[in-house]
Amino acid sequence: MDQRQKFWVGVVLPFARDLAQQVAEGLRRVLGQDAVTGLTACGDIKTRADAEAERVVEVWMQSCPFPAAVLIEGTAEVKLYCEPGIQPAVIFVIDELDGSRVFLRQGRYWSICVGAGPYSESPKLGDLQVGVIRNLNGEGEELAACRGCGVTFNGESLAPPVMRPGDPWNFDVEISGGLFPIWGAYLAPFEGLCRNGVQVVQSSGWSARTIALGLLTFFVHLPSRIKRKWPELVAEMQEQHGGATGAYPWDLCAAYVILTELGCVVMRSDGRSMENVDITNPIAHDVLFAQNREVAEWVVARLNEVEERLVLNYSRTLAFVSMVLGRPPRGQTTQLS
User: Fold this and answer.
1) Distance between CA 71 and CA 150 in Å, rounded?
2) pTM for this structure?
3) Looking at the chain, which terminus has fewer C-beta neighbours within 10 angstroms, N or C?
């Protein structure tokens, strides 16, 4: 292990883990011990929980043993924690400061996500070296990773998930910002696969956790892709979710490090790499997480096939959406036969 890697695993990773833990404890003070009392708002709306988490980050960063920068979800603003004229060594990216809100049949799952990598003017997802996902519920659980050093779950080494012949496939979808009629069409190829028991997913942290633990085969987040292909539906989608119709780079930082370190796949839903995504650029992306490349390629192929058929029948597809909604989509300006 060279000096650079020793720095990331021996200095940055412990600080990131402590930071996530401190934020979790701060949120419990606001949300309740089990992190399920109190309400937070979806999207990038400032909440009491956001404010408390940001206060904790501000206090904790004062003790950072190296010059650092912090990017917090919902903004492209990077705050420096170093003396004037000193270049930060590390940038921390912190997501879900008001707690991810994944509503399960068994209750709710809340988490804090922290990613870290070398500081630069335009840091990329592929540059990240550290990822931590900290669960707020009960006594909590922790996934942590450092590039080249593996992944731990509650402090114990975590082996990569292994799919065996005959294992059932299961998947989750991110439905926030989606439009159900078109969602159904895009997900038709996966009819018969098992859903993972999630009613509403609003967290890449949850999906990364379940894939890392071998409980999930793949996860897709498609609204940004649908927006690109179906401009008539953009206004409808934005009205439903305040414009946050995709996964922002800060949503992905912790998940990207943890999953890729395990040998899992994080890519756009059309198969393009996300390695060079600028984590300070507030552009939403469509995303695919998968246990392995074979699964990822199969999902990409199915999505591309169904999208091609839908686009070939463009007017008919929009007419179907209108029929299900009971009216034309709000962004549609032409009458369809």
Assistant:
1) 25
2) 0.88
3) C
